[in-house]
User: Fold these one by one.
Assistant:
Number 1:
Amino acid sequence: MKFATKVIHAGNATDPHTGSLMAPIYMTSTYLQESPGESQGYDYTRANNPNFVILENILSSLENAKYATVFSSGLGALTGLISTLSQGDRILGIDGLYGGTYRLFNSVFSRFGIDFYSIPSPTPEALEKALSQKPKWLFFETPTNPLLEVFDIAALVKIAKKHGVLTVVDNTFASPFFQNPLDLGVDIVWHSTTKYISGHSDVVGGAVMTNDPEVKKGADFARKAIGLNPSPFDCWLITRGVKTLTLRMERHESNAMQVAQYFETHPKVKKVYYPGLPSHHNYEVAKRQMRGFGGMVSVEFDLSLEETKKLISNYKLISLAESLGGVESLVCHPASMTHASIPVKERHKQGISDGLVRFSIGIEDIVDLITDLETTFSVI
Ligand SMILES: *Cc1c(COP(=O)(O)O)cnc(C)c1O
């Protein structure tokens, strides 16, 4: 099945009792057992629910994975994954992680003896050296957040495998429409389904996808044992949202490309970060491993911090808000919003300057978006 068919038909579960074409929402905490300990596959919704399974069948299909486990949020999914490690285990990251991911490693799990360390850029030398400290995982995002660096997944996997280290990739930014890390040898993919997968900024969710039955077992156990389960209603919403993923991603991308091109020649712009521009230093890698370049565009304006803040607070259509991947365009200021949880020094070291602005380009008409961007320059 091709992607555009999978988003509609994979995992679809017509209700056998009524013929309801769309699966109902199973708002139940518990399930009738035929005799003590003998359920029909479900016993308590913290452990499992039919709406979880329906969504998992879709998501595993979209990532070409054997298994998926859905969670209450992206960070819930990551918490579940990290909980499968033990005290004394180490995680090697590559800079450019979502701020909340960084915070989870450094402000929570570090206190439980799970050590996170990172390298700024995965050159083969730096990676070999860092891997010799025997981490359990090599952990990264590509494209990164918010600078949209693209890492060569297959090349990183090859080096990690040589050291017997599992690779874990956050595929939220690309979405499974543009990139399938498992096909490139990655062991575990996770998503914030809050973003492109659900696509309407009305629900929070997360998921883990893998071909490894042990990872699936660990994720399911963590969900039940820690209480990281989503609500059946939220899973139903995400199941509904994902059906238009193909159409949305095509439009996100074509709009983002036009916004990036518009900014690239603008006199008030110092630098545009978009992996679909041939001027992007990872353009060739992106073209090779992705089927498109996504809907995120970051920009460094040639403006003072105050002017930048004024500009992005005055757009008419583009809302000043955290998050991304919804049908509506959003703008954010990473240094004071999404990445405020990263200490200033570390943030600057990672190239997240105070003048950097991140756009999540929505699926509105491109003429209206460019008009909003252009006319708002008049406020400064
Ligand atoms: C939002 C986001 C997360 C966290 O997901 P939540 O659903 O907010 O918990 C993780 N990674 C990336 C890239 C994100 O954008």
Note: Residues 73-75, 98, 100-101, 141, 145, 170, 172-173, 192, 194-195, 204, 206, 324 surround pyridoxal-5'-phosphate (CB under 6 Å).
Number 2:
Amino acid sequence: MWTILTSICTYKIELEPILRMNSIKPDPRLIPRFNIDYYTGDFLSSMLHLEKKPDVDKITNLFADVSINYTNSGRTSLYIILKALNLPENSNIGVSLYTCPSDFDAIIHAGHNPVFIDIEPDNYTLDPQDLNKKIDDLAAVVVVHALGRPADLEGILKVAGDKPVIEDCAHALLSRYKGMLVGTIATAGFFSFRTGKYISAGEGGMITTNDLQLASNIENEIEKLQLPSITDEIKHATITYARSLLYHRPWFGLFSLPLGSRIEDKIDIMNKRSFSKTKIRNTDLHVITKKIKDFQGKVDKTRDNSLYLIEQLKGLDLILPFERSETYCNYFLFPIQFKNISVRDNLSEELRKAGFDTVMLFSATPEIAKLSYGYEGDCLATENVAKRLLVMPNHYTLRKKELDKICNIIKNCI
Ligand SMILES: Cc1ncc(COP(=O)(O)O)c(C=O)c1O
């Protein structure tokens, strides 16, 4: 009880300044952009399995022939991979600018420097041509399969040559490139199961690699991390549950959104810039193994919703997502790019008034990278996209009549 109260109080205190700036009217109908896939049953069953080793067979079978390791988060996983690569200290690591700044933190925590690479504006993923201009100064490259969209791995691996390439699959569980699961193609990959990702477990990170020597180094690095205590497990699962309640109807529209300006901020509310590196928690791994069983069905439904939105919106003056040939996109997020910033901002407002939350994903990353990570302003496609992109609700829980309503509002605003 105490943990729930502290969680809610911390939440409130952190959001106080935003509340003053924001005048969003409380609306219990509001559908969150992110589907927080964590419910009472998840909380209770993780509590019942506090000390039981989770059965990871489903995951191991899915990623057959690949070494798998776990940590407490995606950012810790990237940190561990970079440590395990034994690169010289202060190496330059290329990373797509269109991503979560926690990637930059992981690079810095591992003792290296992020070097920002631009994106291909139609796919939101690392541009091999920009990489080619910068590759000589880099020791390794982090490729983000942003929004669940597989990057041009063939082009990137060709430019990278012998240099290690790490796949950031935080959004891309089950996405495929030329038939292969992303995360199994380059030197190593990592996934995130933080609340708000396709599988919301609270936290949790997974590392994949085909390289046996690297896998052994990764295991050694993970051994150096602390094992979370039982008290930490209980506290963490309780906070995760409290947070998931706040992101479902009616509390999301009544309380969470009016108190915050963007879901991104709210999802990270107690993890912002935090970088605690531990082994994975039993409670998180338990939820991940439980959810992975029917995960493909959820991806199928989200894909159906996304393809329906594309069909209904085609022909309008906006840039819709599409699947490149030989790729399979899990459609974790559904981005629309607008020619005009004010159209995007107006649409976001209209959708919210009609009960649909949207998010301008990573819109602040170029600015944050300039202020805090030494970005010098040479990734123009990313900057342009960050100002024009809006992520729509498309998750598997949405019904056709809700999708139709979203489409009608878009048609009226364009
Ligand atoms: C693209 C991307 N990469 C990496 C991460 C880091 O994962 P985690 O939050 O589990 O550390 C996130 C999200 O938070 C992300 O969105």
Note: Residues 73-75, 99-100, 102-103, 144, 168, 170-171, 192, 194, 205 surround pyridoxal-5'-phosphate (CB under 6 Å).
